[in-house]
Amino acid sequence: MNTTPKLEAAVTDLLVATGQLLRRLRAISNTRKLTWSQVAIMARLEEVGPMTIADLARAEAVKPQSMGGTLAAMEEEGLVERRPHPTDGRQILFTLTADGRETRRKVGLAKQEWLSAAFAKLKPAEQQTLISAVELIRKISDHE
Amino acid sequence: MNTTPKLEAAVTDLLVATGQLLRRLRAISNTRKLTWSQVAIMARLEEVGPMTIADLARAEAVKPQSMGGTLAAMEEEGLVERRPHPTDGRQILFTLTADGRETRRKVGLAKQEWLSAAFAKLKPAEQQTLISAVELIRKISDHE
DNA sequence: TATTGTTATACTCTATAACTATA
DNA sequence: TATAGTTATAGAGTATAACAATA
After folding, report:
1. Per residue in B16-29, is it b (16+ CB within 10 Å) or e — as a string?
2. pLDDT per residue over A113-140, tens digit each?
């Protein structure tokens, strides 16, 4: 027995709790609303650089068709742009536009205001625990 | 300055990372698939007891109309059932059906298998950090 | 053949707006 | 009036299935 029932229940709780947090944050209005799928895609494009539909679909654990639709909508809004792959004619590389980067920054601020207020209620040690947890959640997400 | 930039970035990362985790877990197939909205509603009904549409909408930070639609679909599937409020004729109380509780248990198992494997890769101290983080995320979610 | 991407169709969750019924 | 719920409409994100283009 590697994981106790208590441990497993805690992780389910983690997902339920974070699901709620995501929904609450989505409700925060901005000049230009971004969904969390869009936020995730834009964060990845800015951190990793140009990526194909297949890359992004794998990274976000959705089907390529789904990712294609989401990217098409974002392209329509001018948040991202497509560019043919230099050597592989099948692939299309997506990058953030200047407007995409700017929008990402602005929308981030509105959500950060709310988060900062919520965060300020926690003790410093608790804040540190949350920061440590981020890296662990990322590790778990990378599990096959 | 109560929160450092590093702290704020960490929380955004938390949301992006958990968003990915949620998407990955949704892809896990079961005999009967539940969305994470459904999982959250069912967890709440089992823990808190009978709740109205307005109660659940507030708890999950969505509009009553949205919650009404989701609950109607779940009722159609036999996961929840409605009952008039004993004294207030406007309100409707929702509870889990026996099938809802059973489904919740089964679907939970499939996701738990994946989580257990992912969890087993972490060190005990890291697992403990994640458990502690759950309560903190809940605290943050309760912020107005 | 295998991979990348597109098109078509459908379902879930969400929102806004306008409505009815009850307190 | 205020609150609880419903109905109608729309948009985003997801899935499956079938297809075309390229490697």
Report:
1. bbbbbbbbbbbeee
2. 777 788 888 999 998 898 888 888 888 8
Tokens of A131: 């920061």
- Strand D neighbours among B 22-41, CB < 7 A: 23, 26-27
The three-state secondary structure class of B19 is helix
Distance A121 CA to D9 C1' (A): 40
For A11-34, how does the pLDDT look when each residue is reduced to its tens digit (9 = 90+)? 677 777 777 787 777 777 556 778
* Amino acid sitting at position B50: P
Nearest alpha-carbon partner for B140 in B49, B53, B14, B5:
B14
pTM for this entry: 0.81
CA distance B87 to chain A (A): 30
A7 close to B119: Cβ distance less than 8 angstroms: yes
For A10, which of B60, B134, B141 is closest by C-beta distance? B134
Q: What is the token pair recorded at B133?
A: 């983080």
Q: Do B8 and A116 lie within an 8 Å CB cutoff?
A: yes
For residue A1, pLDDT beyond 50:
no
- Find the residue in B nearest to A117 (Cα): B143
Cα angle B16, B21, B23; round to 5 = 95
B114:A39 CB<8 A = no
